[in-house]
Each structure stands twice: as structure tokens, then as C-alpha cells.
Amino acid sequence: MTLWRKLKYLLPSVRRVEERDMLEELEALAAIAEIKELGNRTRAAEEVRSVWGWPRIEEFYRDAQYAFRMMRANPGFATTVVLSLALGIGANTAIFSLIDALMLRWLPVRNPQELVLVKTRSKGDVSFRENFSYPIVRALAEQKDIFAGVAGFSGTGFLVGPPGSVNSVNGAWVTGEYYETLGLNPLTGRLLGRADDEPGAPDVAVITDGYWERQFSRNPGIIGQTIPVNGIPVTIVGVSPAGFTGANVGQIADITMPIANITQVNPTMAVLLNPGNFWLRALARPRDGVSARLAESRLQGVWPEIAARLLPPNFPSRLRKAFLETELQLAPGGTGHTFLREMFKKPLLVLMAAVGLVLLIACANVANLLLARASARQREIAIRLAIGAGRGRIVRQLLTESTLLAILGAVLGVGLAWATTRWLVDSFSAAWGKVTFDLTPNVHVLGFTALLAIGTGIFFGLAPALRATAVVGSRKSRLSSVLMTTQVALSLVLLIGAGLFVRTLQNLRNVDVGFNKEGVLLVSLDGRREGYQGASLAAFYDRLLARIGQLPGVLSASLSQGTPLGNGTWTERVARDGDLLPENENAIFLPVTPRFFETLQTPLLQGRDFNDHDTGTFKVAIVSEAFAQRYFPNENPVGQFLLASVTKPPSRLEIVGVVRNIATEGIRLNPYPTVYVSYRQREPQNANIELRAAGSLSQVAQAVRTELRAKLPSTAVEVHGLTEQVEASLIQERMMAMLGSGFGALALVLACVGLYGLLAYSVARRTKEMGIRMALGARPLVVEAMVVRDAVRLVLIGIALGLPTAWAASRLIASMLFHLKPTDPATLAGAALVLLAAALTAAYLPARRASRVNPMTALRHD
Amino acid sequence: MDLLQGTLDMLVLKTLVMEPLHGYGIAKAIRNTSKDALDIEFGSLYPALKRLELKGWISSKWETSEFNRRAKYYRLTPAGRKQLQREHSKWADFVSAVGHVMGPIPEGGKS
């Protein structure tokens, strides 16, 4: 093979032998022929060498060697360039790897591109719903002429371990066909099958490879053993393959159990098996030869019958009608499912655009540095052109230099990105405790970065390279000023964006949430797990509360079903007593004990708090201001009655008090009418304890933990602050404010470094001019002003270009802002001022140097 | 006379059909056969030989010449013979195509 023979020539030893042989041959021929006949033998030999060689590669190698020498000769320049690019490329890699992890990564299953996610949409609705009931998923799985398999799944938490040392482990409930549909094979043991998901089937679980390693040190003997899950012995039947952590992206399911086991393992949730509960996602694999489109159209045929058959009989008629009219859609499902995708898609795309701008700024910066250096290297390049180097050859060499710089930047950038994303995801997890992503750089990410590096290397290197080799000596160049104003304009856009996100977060933090989050601790618990029920459970909660209230440092303690910005609230249909219950007007309901409002420091505006006599059945209610305004405008609601669908038939509740609005569902939302009922007037279920503490929160938390662990041996007791819960609800805004200002600051620094470099260079070039001016009597201040004026002119043009750009771009993020217009004048002016101040600081040093020029030295300067 | 691109390779292969020759011999043979019309510069011929050798169409061996001098002789390989056939038919097609276009030499057009 030609290639093979050619590759041999890369070996120096082969090359030496052939070289000697060629010279010998030429020598021999010279002896035979007349000397003139052979012409220039040296040239012939040189051409043969290029036949043997890999001219492009060897040239590249030589160029790279040369480039490294140049870098060593100018370490300051090389460091500035590499760092600028590392920051620019690193920021891009970081955001891209988040996008990749969240949206682009295939599930590690067989042919993931075949999988589809089943969705429904009601007529007239914009968005799809992705939840299905257990009976519907099973009915879909029976459509064997459409699907090879349908996997229903939902994330959950399991309490694992013997009483006294219980841990909370993330897990999933899945249908019997889950693993078969995904096409997975067990690492050891077996995976779940259809028979496991039948009523009365033994309690079994599959664990992930990671859990097997962490908990059981990969001991194969664990297969067939039982572990206590929610206090019930569950047999581990197998380990799922390495890399697979469930179909919910971002939420690891270390323990996976069949849904039919819910009745034994989590009896309080057995209602999930009923047709009225829509809680499962459905990933399906169309059978061989059936495309997603065909599957969808066949499904439309059978869907109305399935929907009609499997809706619960007591489903409200309006909802039933709407549901029967839903259309089905099969969306690509190979990347799994995650609620995070909906939540973070837009923020990540906005951030991707931002880091794109950062990279542009970095490129402009580096291009400017290269331009400056190209004029310093003009002599070298002129000599090379003069002794016969082609322009293309020199451009190629300069591009090799810039690409190498970019590659060095990229290598550093990948490291930066990896550290940053790890830290970012960790800070998400601190808020939610559950988010885990695989962020190891993969082919997508590294490919993206490599393309970016080579692209930027050529992008920022081309103009300076062409300029440097232009045969006609260039006149005073405008290019560097253009690059500079572009940098300023782009930095301004980023600064404005950052300002808008920071102000949004501030506005959200300043919203009156209706409670004082400082100094409050929360504990979530469920006494039913400890074997209490009904009256004994109520008594147990009372004892716990009394005990907690006596702990040192606890000022006030209460118990409630849910917490502000947490879980546990729900909605019921409500009306004034005497009116008919409307179909679709409702209020948020939250059962609480006495002192709940005192603990949260939510002002009681009228009437009284619940007291120890509010027991038995639903009788009294405390309503929020929003409720009072909606249902009793211009009236005193205290003493009046409301009607609520908490029971059948609806209960009449006497309003005994009115409290300030509490942000229960989200700080961004307008206060929703809320009804607080007495926790002791309904069947006790799970609960949250909230307590206000004085002094050290962590000491009180420790005391509470110790106290509760003893009383709740089957619960993984976790105490956390209300502050954390509030902050967790702002995670998206916090991320935007934090990363936005990070990238804004980065842009500002890059632009200032660029401005400094440009001015320093122009001062150095104009040393002679400055000297003459000073010799003619210009005062230092005048010279300083001259340099600063140049800078200010560039910056002002940049700002003038940046403002309208930002004005146009900020519309795209209007929906992410809070109580703020995208054209908020204060933010715009603030950003422009920050930019101007930073630019003046950057301009000051070169200006000072210019004014210190010694006229005599300057005039002798060449 | 200038050579068309790639024609040199074909000429070299053709020349080697009869007998193995050394580098200078090939140049001489082409000149003689073409009645001095094609005077190939050795500086172009020699790299072409090495290129053909790399492609495996010719092979070389040190031998002793008619005047008892050592020289490297090139011979056609079976792959080279096949390549020559291909080039030859391509060449014939090309010549006839150009011939069709050009037609007979116009009156007074002889230069």
C-alpha cells in the first residue's frame, strides 16, 4: 500500500538509508551522464525528499516548534493570550457541558434514539402533560402492535436500614416492563420483569452499580439478601449496569422497585395504584418496523377507548370531558426525562449566549494583541517575504501560532470548566439535595471545545495574519479601534444583563413573603412510619411538639401539614357560605396547629389564632388577606362562614382570624387566597415541625435532631433552616445573578485588559511624538489628557453601540425578570458608568507613562 | 514541448515496458523515441521515478551497467503494467476526443 510505504518514511532510520541510497544513485548517474545533462542535482534530491515526506505535517511541526519558541520569547504576551482564551473557552465549555448533561446526553440504554416519551395535550392547551396513571401505562404496554415495551416510572425516596439507623435513599417506582423496554442487561442477578409488577408479588428491588459499590463493596453475595426498606424486608434481586442511574435525568434512583410493591412497602401511598392518580412518566419503544410517527397515529386510534375505560368513575365531569379530548404525542425520549429541563432550558440558553459574547470579547482582545505584535514583527516578516516565502506560507505559520495559543487556552479552559460545573451542580444539590449529573467531559463536550479552539484560533488570528503579510505597508489601522469598540459594546451588553439579573434577585429577596425566615428550623416527619395512627398519632405529635417546645433556645414551635415554599399544601374548591361551590375557583389549604403564625412571625390581622379547643372535625378557619379581599371585600370576614370541598358534602367553616399573605407556592406569584385549617380538626398524616430559636441555630438543630432520633427510630431525621428553603426556591434566579455577574465581570476585565494593552502599545509607538510635544512645552497633564481622551472616545462609541444592542437583546429575557423592565434606566446607566470607570482606570497607567516620557530619550528613540 | 500533467508518469511506465533502465537511461530513451521532441529535464524525471516507486508501479535494484558501472535500474511491476494499460486507454480517448474537436489542420494554419 502506498500509505504504508509512505508511513515507513516517517521512521528516521528508513529515511537515513533511503537518503544515502539516493545520493549514491545520483553520484553514480553523474559518473555515467555528462554533467550538464543532469542539471541541478541538489534540487532534484530536494524534490524527492518532498515526495517521500509529509510536507504539510512536517511544515506544521516546524511551525509549531517555531510558535513555541516565540511564546517562550514573549511569556507575558503568551500568558495574557492563553488566559484570556482559557476564560472565554472555559466559560463556553462549562455552560455547554451543563446543556449537554441536561438535554443532549443519551440514556445509557439500548438504541436510545428509538425511545419515545408519551405526552398528552388537551384541546386549546399550549403545553403537554407528561403524567399518566398506573392503569393507563399498563394499558399502553398492552398495545403490542404498537409498542415493544412501555416503561412507567417515578422518582421517590426510600428509608433504608434497621430502626435507629435509617437513611434516606433516592429511588424509583417502575412498571414491570421498565428494564425490558430500556433494553438493559443485569450486571449481576436479574432485573425486574413483568411478574414482579403483579398484585401480591414478593417485595424485590434492583440496585444501581454505584449503590452496590458504596454500600456492599461489590459483594456478589448480596443478591438474594433482604434489606429493610421503610421497615419492610425487600429482596435485592440484581444490579443494573454501570452508568445507568434511572430514566430521570439528574435524579439518581439507587433503589428501583416494582409499583405493585407499593401496597406493602409504602401503604400510605397505595392510592397511587388507583386510576385517579397521574404520577408516572411513560417512555416507550415502538416495536420493530413501526416508526414513531406510525406508532403515534395507531395510538390515536386506541387512545379514546383506553382513556374512557381507565378514568375513575368519580372523575369530575368537566375534567373527564377535557381528558377524553386530549391528543397524544410521542416525543423523542432517548435523553430520558427531567423536570429540570423545562426549568433550566431558557436560563442555560441565555447563559450560552452570554458566554458566546465573552468568547467574542476574548477573541477581539487577542486579535488586538496579535495585531500589535504583528507590527512589532513586521521586520521579521518582511525579511521572510523578501527571501521568497509565499504569503500563504507565512499566513499559515501565523495561524498555526494563534491556533496553538487557542489550544493551550482550551486545555486550561476545560479544566476550569470542569471545576466550575462541579461547583455549580454541587450548589444546586445543596439546595435540593438530589441533583446529580454526570459531568465527566465526553465526546460531545470535548468535540465542542476542540472546534471552539480551532475556530477561535483561526477567527482571531486571520485578520492580524493577513494584515501582517500585506505587501502594501498599511496606513494607520482602524481595525484595532473597531475591535476595541466592539469589545466595549459587548461588555456593556453583558454588564446590563448581569445588572438585570442581580436586580431581579434583589427584588425577589425584598418581596414581603409574609413571614420572617431567619431563625426558623424545619423538620419533616411521618409518625405513621413509627406505627402510630389516628388518635394515637395525634397524641404522639402533641407529645413531640410539647417536648420540642421545652428544648433550650426554642422560643415557639408548631406543627403543620406543609411549609411556605415547601410541599404539603393543596387546593380545594371554596365559596362564601350560601353560594354554590364553583367548578374552578379554589384556594390553597394548609392545616396548622396553634402558634404556627407566631413561629413564622406572620402578623395576625384580625380575630384569633387556633387554640387547643379547635379539635375534632373541620369547624374553623383562618384566612389570608388575599382570601378576605376576594370573598369578603369591604367586610369583616371574622365570624362569617366559608364553604370548602374538604369533605363530602362540603364543610362550613367559621372564619376566626385573618393573617398577612404568606408566599406559599413561590415568591414570584401573586398571593393566592389561602385557607388555614386546624391540624387537629382532620385525620393526622405526615407533618412538618417548625420552630423559632434564639441563639445558635446549629446548636438548637443538634438538640432537636438528638431528641427526634430517639422518638422516630424509623425516620431519617433532617433539620434544615427556613432560610435555605426560601433560597432553594430562588435557585434559578440565583444562578442567573451569580453566573451573569461572573460573566459580566469577566467581560469587563477582558475589555479593560484589552484597552490597557491597546493604549500602552499606542503610547509606546508614539513615544517620539510625545517627546516632541513635551519638548515644545506641553505639560504632562495635557499629554495624559490626550491619551485618556483617546480611550474615552473609544469607550463612548462602544457604549453608544452597546446600549441599543442591549436594549434589543434584553427583551429576550424579559420573562425572567421580576418587577423590572428589560430597559430599566437605572441598570442601563449603572452598567455604562461601571464600564466607563473601569475603562478610565485601565487608561490611567498608559497615560501616566506617556506623561513621564523624557523628551531627550524620546527624540533619540528610533 | 511542454508535457501535460501526469503524462510524464505514463511516458516513464511505457519506456520501462521494453527493458529495465537507470534514471539517466530513461531520460535518454524518451528523448530518442520522441526524436528529440521531448527533452525531459532530469530534475523533473528523477522525483517522478521516486513517486512511481512509492506507488509501487516500478521497482529499483542496483546493477552493473554496460560500461561496467554500477547504477540503479528501474523495472515495471505487475501493478505498474496494469496502470500503464489504464493510462494508455485514457490517453487514447483523450487524443481522439481532442482530435474530433480540432478536426483537420486549417489552410495556412501550419506554424
Using the CA coordinates, give the radius of gyration of chain B.
16 Å
In quaternary terms, these chains amount to heterodimer
Radius of gyration of chain A: 36 Å
Helix percentage of chain A: 40-55%
Description:
The complex is a heterodimer of chains A (862) and B (111). Chain A has 862 residues and is an alpha+beta fold. In chain A, the strands form three sheets. In chain A, strands 1, 2, 3, 4, 5, 6, 7, 8, 9 and 10 form a ten-stranded mixed sheet that branches. Chain B is α+β, with helices and mostly antiparallel strands. Chain B has four helices and three strands; from the N terminus they run H-E-H-H-E-E-H. A three-stranded antiparallel sheet of chain B has the order 1-3-2. Chain B starts with 6 loop residues before the first helix and ends in a 9-residue tail after the last helix. The chains are: A alpha+beta (862), B alpha+beta (111).
